[in-house]
């Protein structure tokens, strides 16, 4: 098959895998709750402060004391992270596109029949 278009190269990494972010999140949350963790949805952290060997996260309606904290945000994260976090995180852009299940005929027409993930980068001139 000959591919035509604005592509200039290709790379295959067959040991990679696909990750559905929502399924991953809900799986992590369920596992954490089974382990006895309480999840506080819709509780923005206003500030954090050292508290013994952990961190105190202050919210509008109270606070949480934690030994460890995971900072997990969406693509549009706040710009007011604490200074001590500087240089310890990196924003990453991710776009996930999904379609309805394709028919065998549609899969044949588009030429991609692998379960391997793919992405492309626009050719900039």
From TrEMBL:
Entry protein name: FAD dependent oxidoreductase domain-containing protein
Keywords from the UniProt entry: Oxidoreductase
Top-level division of the source organism's lineage: Bacteria
One Pfam family linked to the record: DAO
Key word Transmembrane present: no
Matching InterPro entries: FAD-dep_OxRdtase (IPR006076), FAD/NAD-bd_sf (IPR036188)
Keyword Oxidoreductase appears in the UniProt entry: yes
Domain FAD dependent oxidoreductase: 7-113
């Amino acid at each position: 098959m000959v591919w035509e278009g604005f592509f200039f190269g290709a790379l295959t990494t067959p040991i990679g895998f696909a990750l559905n972010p929502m399924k991953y999140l809900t799986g992590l949350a369920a596992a954490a709750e089974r382990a006895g963790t309480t999840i506080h949805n819709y509780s923005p952290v206003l500030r954090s402060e050292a508290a013994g060997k952990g961190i105190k996260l202050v919210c509008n309606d109270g606070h949480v004391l934690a030994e460890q904290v995971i900072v997990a945000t969406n693509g549009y994260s706040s710009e007011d992270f604490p200074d001590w976090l500087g240089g310890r995180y990196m924003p990453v852009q991710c776009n996930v596109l999904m379609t309805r299940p394709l028919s065998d005929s549609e899969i044949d027409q588009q030429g991609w029949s692998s379960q391997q993930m793919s992405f492309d980068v626009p050719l900039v001139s």
